[in-house]
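User: For my dataset I need records formatted as: sequence, then structure tokens, nothing else. Please produce one.
Assistant:
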Amino acid sequence: MEECISFKYYMQYEGDRIMFLNRLSADYNKVFLALCYKAIGCNNEITEEELAQLNQYATELNTAINFDEYNSKSIEDIVTSLATTNITDKKIILSEMLGILMSDGVYDDIEKGFYRDVCMKLNIPHSLAIEIEKGVEEYIESFNRFAVLILNS
């Protein structure tokens, strides 16, 4: 398993952060949460950090979490529902999905495969998928460095 930057400070100090999710159409809120639920379960290890991030997303979207509904949908149905979104919405969805996948500090090969599979199904060019992935990793790393700088004595 490959280590990645943890959301330790991100989650602790930025619980009310402004995410891009508020730009999504309300029609996609439930579908986005279902996608995130499938994402965090893709490696059969749902962590406390991932569940906390899912709750944060639901709070920001003002949408209740419904595990029964998420379990009843296939990843194919979810991705098909998102296929009609514009490229900006797709980039928001993918970046926030990566945020939840990386929230526990581990971004393993199964999670990477899940991300890349969703990108492919959404017709995201490989180069853009890699750019989004690197951007999220750099954002988390930068935020954590800054949080340490400011909050540690």
